[in-house]
Amino acid sequence: MSADAATLAVYASRAQDYADLNADSQAGGSLDRFVGALPPGARVLDLGCGPGADAVAMREAGLAVDAMDASGEMVRLARRLHGLNVRCAGFETLDDVAAYDAVWASFSLLHAPKSDMPDLLMRIRRALRPSGLFGLGLKTGIGESRDSLGRFYAFYAINELEQLLAAADFTVQDMRTGASSGLDGTVAPWVRITARA
Amino acid sequence: MPELTAYTDGACSGNPGPGGWGVLLIARNGGKIVKERELFGGEADTTNNRMELLAAISALDALGRSSEITVVTDSAYVKNGVTSWIHGWKRNGWKTSNKKPVKNVDLWQRLDTAQARHAVRWEWIKGHAGHPENERADALARQGMEPFKPKNSKAG
Fold first, then answer.
1. pLDDT tens digits for A85-127?
2. Of B19, B22, B43, B74, which residue is the catalytic one?
3. What's A62's domain CATH number?
């Protein structure tokens, strides 16, 4: 249930490379729309914030941002680069109740085993206030595997994700697909979903 | 930044038979239409599903550079393919779970390539349910099919 050691090791050894690759938020219009759907000062949790590019963009947009990441190196970078309020913890420790107006999990939950996903979605649902907003980015595909660097990935078919979200009592509002390249250099298809609690 | 929406539809007279596809591409700025483009085409011997796919492909390929675009379709076939089947097909080297060749694999591969260039928001609607833009896409698809319909041969 706790974070994958090999994945953490990759992020530990290549934290700066990853931060350079993601120096600016990669979420583009998706993050703008997410922020635009929230009132000023809304409380947001960036779940698996990495070096913190999205979190700092949300803070600059006037949101009250908490962040968490399981990688100690990422947490240090996010604090040092942006002075963010970051907890160093795995997803499975999330036990806030009705604490947030929104949760942003952008290409982070893909490092959790698929078997953990129902529980993690329930935790996110519970952390949200009524009608809270959930922004989720994942890689699409089937099964689980490791990339050439050794990072663990879970892949989801879009309809599978829709079912998982429905089971956790989320209503999908928006679904987008695309493809882009990551730290391992390969181009992979992704989906971004916005859902309401 | 204008918001792009492509309303896509396919039409087929007989299945298989002559068919057409249509795309109504609309750019809106703050809800106000700033630009419209109509695309259509057809083939002599095709299926409704192929025309639905070709409409979506044509919409995505019409954009010169990587864009954020909403594709609106009433095709359950395109929906099931994009949200479900394609993940398995790609994993199986474009074979079905029964190891059979994927139907319309040429077009599914084109759609997969085309959508990878863009950030695509998919919107699934019911066809012929009073969506004016969907009706216009349907009319364009019929227009695309027109040249491929057998000429009026009353003698038969």
1. 999 999 999 999 999 999 999 999 999 999 999 999 999 999 9
2. B74
3. 3.40.50.150
- Domain ranges in chain B? 3-79+119-148
Interhelix angle A117-127/A158-167, rounded to 10 degrees, is: 50
* CATH 3.30.110.70, domain B3-79+119-148, yes or no: no
> If phi over 0 gives left and psi between -120 and 50 gives alpha, with beta otherwise, what is residue A123?
alpha
Token pair of A92 as six digits: 């499975």
Domain of A124, in residue numbers: 5-196
SS3 of residue B64 by DSSP: coil
Gap from B19 CA to chain A (nearest CA, Å): 28
For residue A5, which phi and psi values (nearest 5 degrees)?
A: -65, -40
Q: Which residue has the tokens 């000429």?
A: B151
B116/A179 Cβ within 8 A: yes
Number of domains within chain A: 1
Indicate if B52 belongs to the active site.
yes
Q: Give the H or E element holding residue B136.
A: helix B132-145
**How many Cβ atoms sit within 10 Å of the Cβ of residue A60?**
11
Q: Which tokens go with A179?
A: 């493809």
* Token code pair at residue A96: 């806030």
Residues A85 and A73: their CA atoms lie apart, in Å, by 14
Using one digit for the tens of pLDDT, what is the confidence trace for A149-180? 999 999 999 999 999 999 999 999 999 999 98
Token duo for residue A104: 């942003």
Write the single-letter amino acid at A115: S
Q: B153 to each of B42, B43, B150, B156, how far by Cα in Å?
A: 21, 20, 8, 5
- DSSP 8-state secondary structure symbol assigned to residue B113: H
